[in-house]
């Protein structure tokens, strides 16, 4: 599938306000290094879809272990 995302794939986004970082996950595995560091300010969650897709948004999930910088 394009970009490694297909039906049933779980995409996770961890905004860590203690470490001031943003990290992405695919199927509970970290996707690359920490995407953003030294974050500060106000954050507004958003989802952008560009095809006829269905999305389920889950909140309050367990924080993944072993996050790589």
Given the structure, what is the number of helices?
0
In sequence order, what are the helices and strands, one letter per element? Answer: EEE
- Give the radius of gyration: 13 Å
Strand segment tally: 3
Q: Strand pairing plus helix content: what structural class? A: mainly beta
Strand order of the largest sheet: 1-2-3
Tell me roughly what share of residues is in helical segments: under 10%
**Strand residues, percent:** 15-25%
Mean pLDDT: 86
Q: Which assembly state applies to the chains in this document?
A: single chain
Name the shape in a single word. Answer: globular
Low-confidence stretches: none
Write a brief caption for the model.
The chain has 69 residues and is mostly beta strands. The chain is 0% helix and 20% strand.
SSE topology sketch:
Elements: E1 11-16, E2 21-26, E3 29-30
Antiparallel strand pairs: 1-2, 2-3
């Amino acid at each position: 599938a394009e970009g490694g995302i297909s039906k049933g794939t779980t995409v996770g986004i961890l905004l860590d306000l203690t470490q001031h970082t943003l990290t992405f996950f695919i199927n509970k595995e970290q996707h690359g290094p920490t995407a953003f560091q030294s974050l500060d300010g106000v954050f507004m969650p958003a989802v952008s879809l560009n095809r006829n897709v269905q999305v389920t948004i889950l909140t309050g999930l367990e924080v993944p272990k072993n996050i790589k910088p």
